[in-house]
Amino acid sequence: MSVLPIARMGAEVLRQRAAEVADVPDPALQVLVTDMIETMVEAGGVGLAAPQVYQSRRIVIFFVPAARNDGIEVPLTVMINPVITPLDDAANEALEACLSVPGLTGIVPRFTNIRYHYLDLAGALIEREAHGFHARVVQHEYDHLDGVLYPLRMEDMSTLAFSDVLQAEASAKGHDLELDEEG
Ligand code: NI
Description:
Layout: H1 27-43, E1 47-49, E2 59-64, E3 74-86, E4 91-96, E5 104-111, E6 113-119, E7 125-131, H2 132-145, E8 161-162, H3 163-172
Antiparallel strand pairs: 1-2, 2-3, 3-6, 4-5, 5-8, 6-7
Bound molecules: nickel (II) ion.
Nickel (II) ion (NI) binds at residues 98-100, 140, 144, 182-183.
């Protein structure tokens, strides 16, 4: 097991469409995923996509803490070749951050309600629905597989900010601003 280096914005691997994973299950995938989990935990993220560790393959890991998802926890999930379908046109805006764009945050619109499916490490097809923050994390991580970083999804670039500046200004006003890395 090892913590892997995380690619930062500008790296070519973050702009490419990642390749489908052809053979599942594959013992080599287990090694990569274990390293991705260790890397995500070390970095304090809630998600990580394989291109962020220089592996241009359609693999994503994420989890959703209950506190950020109306009390509903989504345990650590490994998705291979995920596919997302919006359930309707509903969208919402929230601050997003990315381990590949360190220090920054910005407001990103995302679909509120989605359905998604993927293969798990055993090769089983899993289908789920997601709403709110859960849906946001899945969309953010999925975008990494298509070479898209969240600033490309922003509609108002004036909201792009350094997280520590926003936090300092919020605490000066007596607010607490939650700014976890999304992955
Ligand atoms: Ni990210």
